[in-house]
Amino acid sequence: MKQLAYRGVAAIVIGVASVFVLVGSYAFINKPEIPAELRK
Q1: In the predicted model, is pLDDT for residue 7 greater than 80?
Q2: For residues 23 and 16, what is the distance between their CA atoms, to the nearest angstrom?
Q3: Cα separation of 25 and 21, whole Å?
Q4: Which tens digits make up the pLDDT trace of 27-39?
Q5: Which DSSP string do the residues of the chain spell out, in sequence order?
């Protein structure tokens, strides 16, 4: 039972980390810029 809980926690941590990596790499590759209207 304890091993199943550890696997579940590990799966959640890996999922959250992969989401952050994918979002970070997307933002790094595309380099979104703030429009001039919003910079004021």
Answers
A1: yes
A2: 11
A3: 6
A4: 677 777 778 877 7
A5: -HHHHHHHHHHHHHHHHHHHHHHHHHHHHH-----HHHH-
